[in-house]
Amino acid sequence: MIEDRYSLRVSALEILRKNLKRLREKQRLTQQDLAERAGIDYKYAQRIEAGHWPGLQLKTIEKLAEALGVPAWRLLKPARTASASASRANDQRGAA
């Protein structure tokens, strides 16, 4: 059970890291730009994106999301993969 909770936590943080980088780059922001907008230390923003998040709190995730102009849940939502989208489309066609 402990391993499952750890895996879930690591997976959620990995999703956060990837989404944070993807959204930041999509808006052509540097890590320093994002940190300034979020009101957090640049080095801390850099560590979060690199996967080192000592003491990461929901409040920090909310600040980063606000700086990117998205709701906080978007940073924690798994990205849809091409195979998942194709599978969903096949399921919908089969149901029709």
Automatic annotation (TrEMBL):
GO terms for cellular component: cytosol. InterPro entries: Cro/C1-type_HTH, Lambda_DNA-bd_dom_sf, TransReg_Diox_bact_type. Residues 20-76 form the HTH cro/C1-type domain. GO terms for molecular function: DNA binding; DNA-binding transcription factor activity. It holds the Pfam family HTH_3. Keywords: DNA-binding, Transcription, Transcription regulation. PANTHER family: HTH-TYPE TRANSCRIPTIONAL REGULATOR, HTH-TYPE TRANSCRIPTIONAL REGULATOR SUTR. This is Transcriptional regulator, XRE family. It comes from Opitutus terrae (strain DSM 11246 / JCM 15787 / PB90-1). The lineage of its organism: Bacteria, Pseudomonadati, Verrucomicrobiota, Opitutia, Opitutales.
